[in-house]
Amino acid sequence: MKILVLGQGAREHAIIKSLIRTGTPAANIFAAPGNAGIAEDAQTFATLDPNSPTDVTAFAKEHGIDLVVIGPEAPLVTGVSDALRAEGIAVFGPSQKAAQLEGSKSFAKEVMAAADVPTGMARECRTIDEVASALDDLGAPYVVKADGLAAGKGVIVTDDREAALDHARKFIDMGILVEEFLDGQEVSLFFLSDGVSVQALTPAQDYKRAYDGDAGPNTGGMGAYSPLPWLPEGFVEEVERTVAMPTILEMARLGAPFVGLLYCGLIITKRGIRVIEFNARFGDPETQVVLRRLVTPLAELLHKAAIGQLQGAPVARFAKNVAITVVLASEGYPDSSAPNRPITGLTEAESNEHIEIAHAATRLEGDELMATGGRVLSVISMAETFHHAREHAYKAIEKIHLKGSHYRKDIAKKVADADNDGKPGNDSEGNN
Ligand code: AMP
Ligand code: GLY
Any idea which fold 183-312 has? Predict the structure, then answer.
């Protein structure tokens, strides 16, 4: 099977590494536009615009692609999936209409209301006066969300009413959602969907804030770990039953079947599980740890979902070993972007068998590897315990040199501290 992966982040690199690890020959993997790391594992086509429905379709036909896997949200928004499907090419990624589950928070709320999916109470606002009164009605801490794609910058959670209003002013043209504050542990749980059924992958936790101790601004994600040994028994099944399946069935009822990856962003509150967001794609950096542990052929899982036969697919299995990922970000991230700078030490860092490195913002200039700003790479570490996974990850990342770069030192720290009997967090192979 020839597979084209669209995107250029560490998520796409992790998808490609997982395809290869679970049996797809590297020679059958194409990537566009890719990055310097992806180019080492697959054939990259840097000039193919992943957001152009006509260009991607023409490329897929010309190269006899059997499956297109869409990494980021942008190609979903421009209708790349729709164009491929219209040509009979299998694609793992929802239609433009179904991707609204991520692109429009008010649409997602409507779907959840119709499907009786538990989520935070929210008020849709069109004016700043409406926002002000919603803030007063729902109370502090205030949660204000832009009702559209805002590159991870659309949400603010704050006790400062003025900051909440300022945030709303910035995004008022998109529409604003003021949501009740939900308190609890966050979980990212991915489901493969073929439009009528789902299959859960393994839960992960993301570190959204820029600095240790969850300080600083929100980012795309600074690290992740999987599995989550502290989850209650039956958690995955409950989310499948109360969130994923009802959502998929409602999307089908609306005539917008969801084929692709349903990312459920969840909070476990005292009153139960609540959805804080849906995404229509694999999460970054959670994918780096989830797929690191996958042992079932990924190509078959994605292809079966894409062609509406997920129920005939094997059950996704995950290694007992735990995985963590630490994101190396360039100077100033997420507030400002750094100039391109050389990055060295990767070969040494990767020489440890526990370590894999997924590239994000990297580019070869001549023989020199350059970091091009933002999140530069994900160091992925797998071991028997979180304690060991952390040791390997941090030893590796210290070998990498990029001027001004930063990373969080507390990824999976709490769970490693709890893991003091030296056993893995999860003692059975399964989807927990
Ligand atoms: P979102 O883009 O909707 O995932 O929001 C970004 C982050 O803001 C989430 O990962 C949470 O940490 C936080 N957040 C979003 N909604 C809420 C909420 N209702 N209550 C508390 N925190 C929230
Ligand atoms: N890590 C959060 C996201 O992918 O949206």
Answer: D-amino Acid Aminotransferase; Chain A, domain 1 (3.30.470)
